[in-house]
Each structure stands twice: as C-alpha cells, then as structure tokens.
Design a protein that fits this description.
By secondary structure, the chain is mainly alpha-helical. Helix content is about 70%, strand content about 0%. It is built from 5 helices and no strands. It is globular, with a radius of gyration of 18 Å. It starts with 13 loop residues before the first helix and ends with a helix.
C-alpha cells in the first residue's frame, strides 16, 4: 500500500519517545535533573499523554465516519476482537456523535486550560 506524500503523520512516534527517554535518563543519572524538575516533567508528560489519547479518540471517530469497520480497527487496539474499540466508541458517543463534535469539545477544553 503506497502512502500519499502529504498524508498527516502522528506528531510523535514510539522511536521519538524512546530516544528522548534515553537522553533524559542519562541526564538524570548524571545528576543534571532535580526531583522538582522531574515532577514538572511528569506533569508535562501526563498532559501530553492525555492530549494523545484525545487525538486517538478523534481518529477513532473519524475512521468510523470514513467507513472503517470495528474489525478493521480492532488490531490497533492490540486485541483480535472488536470489544475494545466498540466500548471506546460507546463511551465517546456519550459526549460526541462525530469527530467534528469531539474536536469542538477539545478546542473548548483547551481554551479553558489557558
């Protein structure tokens, strides 16, 4: 399957995170980071993790809107069955019926965090 050159990619990859983690771990081992700095970093990572989860939810809704079946989606959840994405969609649909509504919720949440 060929990819179009302009296709959006995830803003961060597993390889990016591992490389960052290796560098950061070396800085900690060298005594270059204090506990308060690590706590601040932990907060940044928790917020970034939540943002990635929100983006994942948006992509799930968008994939369904574009016609993807739960069986097609299930492998990215790491399971060979459809319960995981189905349960996530059910939970999301309590808040938003489509990806546009979810994006609007995320925008509103972001504005409130400023």
């Amino acid at each position: 399957m060929s990819e179009s050159p302009g296709r959006p990619r995830a803003p961060i990859t597993e390889a990016d995170v591992l490389a960052w983690l290796e560098t950061t771990a070396a800085a900690v081992q060298a005594g270059e980071m204090s506990a308060p700095e690590l706590i601040e970093l932990l907060g940044e990572l928790r917020r970034a993790s939540a943002a990635c989860a929100d983006a994942s939810d948006w992509a799930l809704l968008a994939a369904r809107e574009e016609g993807a079946s739960l069986r097609q989606i299930a492998p990215v959840f790491g399971k060979g069955y459809v319960r995981a994405p189905a349960a996530r969609l059910e939970k999301l649909h309590r808040q938003a019926q489509n990806s546009s509504q979810w994006l609007a919720i995320l925008r509103h949440k972001n504005e409130g965090a400023r």
